[in-house]
Amino acid sequence: MSGRGESRGRRLVALVPLAWLAATVLAPFLIMLGISFSESIIANPPYAPLVTAGENGLAIHLHLDNYRLLLEDPLYLAAYIGSLRIAGISTLLCLALGYPMAYAIARARPTLRTPLLMLVVLPFWTSFLIRVYAWMGILNTNGLANQLLMALGLTDQPLALLHTNFAVYLGITYSYLPFMVLPLYSILEKLDPHLLEAAEDLGCTPFRAFLRVTLPLSMRGVLAGALLVFVPAVGEFVIPDLLGGPDTLMIGKVLWTEFFDNRDWPLASALAVALALLVVLPVMLLRRRQYGLEGAAP
Amino acid sequence: MSRRRLLPLFLVLGFGYAFLYVPIVSLIVYSFNESRLVTVWSGFSVKWYGELFHNQKILDAAWLSLRIAILNATLSTIIGTCAALALVRFRRLRARPLLNGLVLAPLVLPEVMIGLALLLLFVNLENLIGWPQGRGMLTITIAHTSFSISFVTVVMRARLAEFDRSLEEAAMDLGAPPVKTFFLVTLPIITPALLAAWLLAFTLSIDDLIVASFTSGPGASTLPIVVYSSVRLGVSPQINALATLFVLVVGACIGIAGWLLHRREAQRKAPR
Questions:
Q1: What is the pLDDT at residue B167?
Q2: Which residue(s) pair with A51 in the sheet?
């Protein structure tokens, strides 16, 4: 496989995506990073230029005020903590429902496994916005959930379910459940059932065998699934906006408000940079831990 | 393991499926409700479908979203496949770590950040070189490729990694030039994966609210933007009707794609 014409072709194959992604991923991020150090002014676009030409040549203006505000204003700190908390709780809920589902699919008859898995993935292909909207109808004051609760006699009057943190947990768990089930299934499916039989032959109760054998061996799937749910949930906007209430503080929503309602582009940029750090950090930590786990496996 | 011991497990599985499908089914059922109050049943009616097809705002938005999604899926599939080829086959490429990083970043970064960053890019470009003028279909399409490419690359990378290179080598030993080999040997083999990647990019685009909201301008509202602004005011039966049509179309597409892939797979195995 050689030849001069081909090597030019090969270069083009690498160069096109590289140039496109540099322009649409790298450049925007760098510009945003720059503007996060700028000052908000009433103009179009609404921020002060970073570099100005003065009498003594070029002058660079860097403002740290946006970042100082992030640390000093309790609203932003509360929003970051709120995002982490809500994403964390929703990830645990996804795990609590997704693990037994993945386990059941992995233990089902082999011919049934693919269709069962398809059924988990299918809702992902219908619109995300529409799936969140469906919960608005269900959790409404006179929606399906309240009708059911009242028919069962669990409550006399409709409960306020919509516009609460509970609705946000539910919405995130619902939307991201497939991302938890898929990696767990791929690990659990490969698990050798003989290991469990051996554990039970040696006197383990099934529950103990699960704790000592299955769970440790599926830890990689748990981490991968948790990451796939947690990371997008932290920056979520649609779910807290449509299902959440006034006390649902998440950073994606705050950023949206700063940009669209307050037109403070530099502050929104600083919020986005901090948010990017917030999600990239756990990814890097978990990746390292995952490598560690792989290294420790016999 | 005995089946009986697995019973509670399958009960949880059943609950999980109910959890996944009850909202979608209730959405469809209430789209045929006569009452404007979406959640109170008052009789069967298809009038909301009629109103939907006379809602010019929604029709325009759907047409715009469709054009953006097709453009985005095609562009992303081409560029993403190039990226996957470069990552899988050009082991000695010096820019490989950079390309890998640029492909992975949009998978991790939050959508609000991607949307904001792209808007700032377009605003700065317009100030510097006067292009793109204003924001609309063009900027939304470019913005969508920035993250769709990553998903295409993931799909194509997995397919190319298990590709049997000896088929290409055989074609070239028989005198086919590399470009001809690619189109006559490589392309037909990776077509199912290309189709899957195209559909994924299409879905990501037609589903995107956040990045489109940042990068759209006046007069260019995609379907999710229109749906979102309507839904914010509360539930509406027209949106239920729209959702039902969406579920039907998606279901049909997945059914056809699954059937085609299944048939192909069966044909491939049969002759032996």
A1: 92
A2: A60
pLDDT band at A4 (very low <50, low <70, confident <90, very high): low
Range of the domain at A126: 64-296
* B positions 118-147 inside 8 Å of A (CB): 118, 120-121, 123-124, 127, 142-143, 145-146
Instruction: Answer whether residue A5 is part of any domain.
Output: no
| pLDDT exceeds 50 at position B215 | yes
CATH number for the domain running over B63-227: 1.10.3720.10
Query: What local confidence, expressed as pLDDT, does residue A6 receive?
Result: 59
The enclosing domain of A269 has a CATH number of 1.10.3720.10
Q: Is residue A25 part of a domain?
A: no
The residue to which tokens 């890097």 are assigned: A284
pLDDT digits (tens, 9 = 90+) for B86-135: 999 988 888 999 999 999 999 999 999 999 999 999 999 998 898 888 89
| CA gap A37, B118 in Å, rounded | 17
ipTM of the complex: 0.90
pLDDT of residue B178: 86
Cα end-to-end distance, chain B, whole Å: 36
A137–B39 CB contact, under 8 Å = yes
Q: Do B120 and A265 touch (CB under 8 A)?
A: yes
Digit-coded pLDDT (tens) for A239-266: 999 999 988 999 999 999 999 999 999 9
Per-domain boundaries in chain B: 63-227, 235-272
Whether B62 has a pLDDT exceeding 90, the answer reads: yes
Cα nearest neighbour of A135 on chain B: B23
- Residues A108-164: pLDDT tens digits? 988 899 889 989 988 888 889 999 999 998 998 888 898 889 888 888 888 899 999
Q: Is residue A138 part of a domain?
A: yes
Closest by Cα among A168, A18, A19 to A88: A168
Beta bridge partners of B203: none
Q: Helix, strand, or coil here: B110? A: coil
Q: Chain A: nearest CA to B112, how far in angstroms? A: 6
pLDDT computed for residue A1 by the predictor: 44
* Helix or strand holding residue A53 (H, E): strand A51-54
- All residues of chain B having their beta carbon less than 8 Å from the beta carbon of residue A22 are 102
Q: Which residues contact A4 (CB under 8 A, 6 or more apart)?
A: none
Establish if A115 belongs to a structural domain.
yes
In 3D space, the residue among A50, A96, A77 whose CA is nearest the CA of residue A266 turns out to be A50
How far is it, in rounded angstroms, from Cα B241 to Cα B27? 8
Count: domains in chain A: 1
Which of A100, A138, A237 is facing B12, going by the closest CB pair?
A100
Residue in chain A closest to B172 (alpha carbons) equals A1
Nearest in space to A129 (alpha carbons), one of B258, B27, B35, B70: B27
A90 pLDDT above the threshold of 50: yes
The residue behind tokens 């059941």 is A104
SS3 content of chain B, % helix, strand, coil (to 5): 80, 0, 20
Window 165-184 of B: residues touching A by CB (8 A cutoff) are 169, 172, 178-179
Q: Is the pLDDT of residue B272 over 60?
A: no
| H/E element, A52 | strand A51-54
